[in-house]
Amino acid sequence: MLREEGREKEIEETQREFHHEEEEEHADINTWKYILGFSEMAVVKCAIDLGIADAIESQGSPITLSDLSSTLGCAPSPLYGIIRFLMHRRIFKEKLTTQGSPGYAQTPLSRRLMRQGEHSMAAFILMESSPVMLAP
């Protein structure tokens, strides 16, 4: 009987420790989300300012990094970083062009970053990311 009680206390203590570790892990995750949340908004704002979604849409099919860079008038290296960041968040997707080269294509989410269009939310995103809205 005493042995069972000791075992139950040991199990309870282990569960408390596990719960505490789980809470600490969630706190770390949420802290990083708060820290990096601004970065995500900044990259989305940058994509709208550059007109990435508009350029891909006007192409009508997947577009290579080189063609996108030329269309937007910006260097391919930083553009690649922006596109990769947004692809990891499933805003854009990678798809082969008609020539079989790797390219970038729209998703329903990326179409919301277009300046014009039925589902555009670009104006709202730009407003929400403006210095006035981000000020404390």
Which terms summarize this structure?
mainly alpha; Arc Repressor Mutant, subunit A; two-stranded antiparallel ribbon; 7 helices; elongated; WH_DNA-bd_sf; O-methyltransferase dimerisation domain-containing protein; S-adenosyl-L-methionine; O-methyltransferase activity
Task: Note down, in words, how this protein is organized.
68% of the residues lie in helices and 6% in strands. With 136 residues, the chain is mainly α. The protein has a two-stranded antiparallel ribbon with strand order 1-2. 16% of the residues are buried. The model has no long low-confidence stretch (mean pLDDT 88).
In short:
The protein has 136 residues and is mainly alpha-helical. It is 68% helix and 6% strand.
Alpha carbon gap, first and last residue: 60 Å
Give the mean pLDDT: 88
Overall 3D form? elongated
Helix tally? 7
> Helix content range of the residues, please?
55-70%
**Which fold name is given in CATH as the topology?**
Arc Repressor Mutant, subunit A
Strand order of the largest sheet: 1-2
The CATH superfamily appears as: Winged helix-like DNA-binding domain superfamily/Winged helix DNA-binding domain
How do the helices and strands follow one another from N- to C-terminus?
Answer: HHHHEEHHH
> Measured on Cα atoms, how large is the radius of gyration?
23 Å
